[in-house]
Structures are given as C-alpha cells and as structure tokens.
C-alpha cells in the first residue's frame, strides 16, 4: 500500500516546541486518516530546528465504498415527507426504495451508496486544513506573498511544503494543495550553511538519506545519541568526565541539524565559585555542558559546546566566541557570589517584611515566623534538636534575597547551605537550608537529617494548611501552588524516615499560627487528612500497591498516623495475597451481602451480641468462639502496631467461617434463630474491622 511523506520546512522552530509539534502532526494526520476510513499501518514524526516531517506507511490507495440504509416515512405519509426523503437519499422515486415491515407500520428504506475516493484526493483535502489550524503554543503572521497579505499563522515563516504519496515500487505522486501561496511539491533543502541547495525527494527513505548527505540528521534521537557519544569521547580524550544533563541534551539537539561537538575552557580562578553556580551559568547562558575530574569529582575549567557547523578552522572561532561569553558570565556569577558572602543571612531577613507571600496569608516574614514555631513543635517528634531546628527555619528562606539566587532561581536552598556554612553555622542547620525544599518530586531525594526533616515538614504543612484555610485547594488538573506535590512530600518524609506523628495535631497547630481563620476551622484538619489519603493512594498505586486497601484502612476513622497507615496497608496487602486472606475476604463479603439484603428487607440492623443459648449447631459455636478469640488477639496486636500479627490472627477465622457457610442455613424458619445467626454474621464484620473495613476492598 502507498506511503505518505510530509515535510513542513520553515525558519528555526524553538527547541522547546519541537517534540510536541512532531507528536501533534502525527496525531492530527493519522486521526483524520482513520476518520476518513483510511486505516494505516504505521506512522512516525520527526523534528529539526527547520522542519517537521511525517511518514505514514501502509495507507490504502482508496477509501472503502460505504453503503448505509436510511429509514424514511411511513407508507402513505404526506408528499412533503416523501420528497424530503427522496432528496436526502438521492433516490429518483419510491420505486427505488425498499419497504420495511414494522409493528408500527410499513416504512420506506433508502439505500445510500457513497463511493470511496482516492486517498491522494482525501490527503489533498485534509492536509491544508491541518497546517492552517496547527496548535502552536505561539505563532506569527508574516509578510505578503504575491502582493497579498499573508494569512497563515505558523510558529516561524513557512517556506516550503513537501507532500508525496505512492507505492514503494513506483514514482510517487505529489499531493496537490497550497497553503498561503505555498504549493506542495517534492523539494526540500539541506543544512542552512553546509548544503543549502534544493533537494528533490520521492519518499521517506530517499528523503532521509538525501538530508543526511546534505548535513541534516532528521531523527532527534539520533542527534542526541551523536551529541552524547561525541561529548563523552571528547571529555575522556582530555582526561575528563562529562557531567550528563538530559534536559540540556534535549534542548541542544533541538538547536542543531548537524551536531559538531567542541571543547572550550575558562580561567581556573572561576572554580572558586560553587560548582552548581558555574554549571547554571554555562548551561543557562550558552547551552554548554560542563566536565569534571574523574579522580576528585570536582568541576574542571573546561566546557563542551555543540555547534551546528563544520568550521573550516576546526571550530577555533566558535570556541573563542563561546569562551568570551562564558568568561563574562562567570565573572558576573563570581561577583554575585562574593558580594553575597559580605552580608549575613539573618541581616537579609528584614526585607521580607515588605515582600508579600500571599495577599491573604501575609508577608514572607510572617510565614517564616510560622515555620519557625511549627518546626520547633515538630522537632521533638522527629528526634531533632529544637535550637538547631529553630535556627534553620529562621535562615532557610534568606538566600531568596541573594544576588546569585536572583540570577539563578534553580539554586535556591543550595546557596543557602553554602552561605550558612561560610558564616559558621552548624552543619545540620546549613543542610536544612537546602533540604527543607525536598522532596520536590517522586524521584527527588528525601532528607534524613532530623533538623532538615523538621523544617521540611513545617514548610510544607504550613503551605497546605494556609491555602486550605483560604479555600485555595487544587481543583481538577489545576494546582497553582503545587499543593499535591507538598502533600506527597510530607508523605514521603514521614514514610521513608519511619516517623510517628499525628497529622491532625500538627495541622491544628499550624492553623493556630495563621492570622486568617477559615469559616469552619474544626473541619479543616479532617479535610486536609482526606487530601493526604488521596495522595497516599496515588503514591501506593505508582509503587504497585492496591489503592483500595488505603480506603479500607482509612474507613476505620480516627487515623492520622501516616506511617502506621502505610504499615497496615502493607500487612493487609500481604495477607490478601495469601489463600487465607482471599478466602476470608470472600467469606466476609458474603456475610456483608447477606446482612445488607436482610437489613433492607427487615428495615433494621442486626447489632448486638448473639445469644449463645440459641446456637444449635457445632459450626455456630465454633465460629462464635473463634470470633471472640480473634477479635481480642487482633485488637491487642493492632494496639502494639504489630499488623503482621493482627493479620495472622485474622487468618484463624477462615476455617470456622468456611464451615459456617457450608453447614449453616442463615435464614432459618425460626425467626429467633434467624436473627441470632444474622447477629453472628455481623460479628464477622465487626471482627475484621479490627484491621480494616473489608467492604472497601475490591475482589
């Protein structure tokens, strides 16, 4: 079957837009093909700085013919209805219609045949529409063509469109259409400087090969591999090691069509500036990689750049230009750093009085005081020194007002650590200045130093409680204050450090420190706990655990010790993976289902202890005895937080429950016996609630 080649050749597309644009092009074209009945075999899109390209192979040469039946009016209907039916179906007279018999009467049926069109004609219709409506995040309209104002909005001026369609064994046809005066053809262009001449292409295979000859690597993944391999080899040849940076690699691969890796250097005295600042300077300003000494792990005074040209001088001029800019930028960074060191962190804090954190939550200075107070309360709960925690919370935000962080926001916290160490602060205090922001994502490191943990918890809980108090909760996909990330951070801090603390009490304490009071202050901590439960379910699901078990544990109520909830969920999961667990769950669900039916029928619940005198069967007596023993044993184990032992106790219920349902008829003819047996079923449900609400667990 024929293949499609489409290329949209333009001025430079911003690197950050290329990946999504390629995906959008593939999706838009293939979705339209399928909607038109042209089901294809495969598609792949590519992007370089100057082009978007798409190949779709295995497209049928022609749409299938469509036959549909349309129901018309009843026999004997008014003439207007009949004429409307004939016009809609294209029939010349009712003689061409079929008659369908129906209990409501006999109806005319028209058979509509729609012959399929050639796929190339369909493409000529859909491609210009896709190009004109392409979803660029930002686009522009540029100068006139042929004396007429341009009408196309595109990310950058569009110069050429290549569109061919045909079989591999034949010369392909050009898909004939035009957009804003640009006629689709089979001409593209190579590298802007190394091979700018026009290139005639037929289909994807020779298109990709001819571009490579014209110094254009079409596939962005191939460009990334080439950059990474060459950069590593160049660094190794000089005795260094490349500091890999995936985000920078993605960006640089979108800036070049023909990557050429070169190495430059800067003066060694700049290495006195923190390595992270050097890296941020070189990365942000010149899109260059840094290297380190593999023996010491410290940065070397070298950098690696990626050019888009094979220079006749071997890249000397390009290297010199980059060195000149990087030298100036590093000089600025060194000046900022040395200037920052002249002012102590605490001396910067008064400026926070004039900086608003949020109009309803006060200034940054007020927030820092809240975090200090809350962190001091959390400190004993996590085994941290209160004085160190208070000092760390006092200084943790100060680096936001430094010159370096103002220039490079991504090093906030880290610079706080450096400045704290430089002014002689305790190592734990300095570490907390950096680590109180962590973890900032699922892959980020979790602090383990108790001082850092206390300040990190205080920072995140103050944020959550504050925005809950002013009713700025996340809604749908919107979360402008990153509250979901903050909650997940609290969960990871607690779980991975095995911390025992009451979230409700800590949240209530944080609420007490706010100047703004919510309309329902009593409800806020429990609402926030429900939010934590949702976040915990998300995390457990990502870890492969069952989120319904979280519901089963939270349904017991009154639980805000996240660590114990996690431990209970883990133990419950292991138990339910065993045969005893699976069978007990089935038995408990059966008991609950019977109870629900009978309670609805009798319009009452079957609470209260069963009457032992009414037990007539050994299976009833055995189950009642087992429930009493298991309930006591499981409750005692839960009280000791030994959830594995609690689950072991639960396993003892399985044999008597199985035997009960095998031998005992619950709905006995004797009303008193029936009621007593239903109460016994309720005891099963009650016993299992010592560890979880089994009704919340999915089968």
Question: Could you explain how this protein is built, in words?
Answer:
- By secondary structure, the protein is α+β, with helices and mostly antiparallel strands.
- Helix content is 49%, strand content 13%.
- The chain contains 25 helices and 18 strands.
- Strands 1, 2, 3, 7, 8, 9 and 10 form a seven-stranded mixed β-sheet that branches. A four-stranded antiparallel β-sheet has the order 13-15-16-14, sandwiched between helices.
- It is flat, with a radius of gyration of 36 Å.
Q: Could you list the spans in which at least 5 consecutive residues all have pLDDT below 50?
A: none
Portion in helices:
40-55%
Distance between the termini: 47 Å
The biggest sheet amounts to:
7 strands, mixed
Overall pLDDT: 92
**Strand count:** 18
- The total count of helices amounts to 25
Strand content: 5-15%
**Global morphology:** flat
Structural class: alpha+beta
> If you compute it from the alpha carbons, what radius of gyration comes out, rounded to the nearest whole angstrom?
36 Å
Summarize the helices and strands and which ones pair or pack.
Elements: E1 3-10, H1 15-35, E2 42-48, E3 51-57, E4 66-74, H2 79-89, E5 98-100, E6 107-114, H3 119-132, E7 158-166, E8 173-174, E9 178-179, E10 182-185, E11 187-189, E12 198-200, H4 204-213, H5 220-237, E13 241-242, H6 246-253, E14 260-265, H7 275-286, E15 289-292, E16 299-307, H8 316-341, H9 345-348, E17 356-358, E18 362-363, H10 364-378, H11 386-395, H12 403-407, H13 414-422, H14 427-435, H15 450-469, H16 483-496, H17 503-512, H18 524-542, H19 547-554, H20 562-577, H21 579-602, H22 618-639, H23 643-651, H24 654-663, H25 671-688
Parallel strand pairs: 7-10
Antiparallel strand pairs: 1-3, 1-7, 2-3, 4-6, 5-6, 7-8, 9-10, 11-12, 13-15, 14-16, 15-16, 17-18
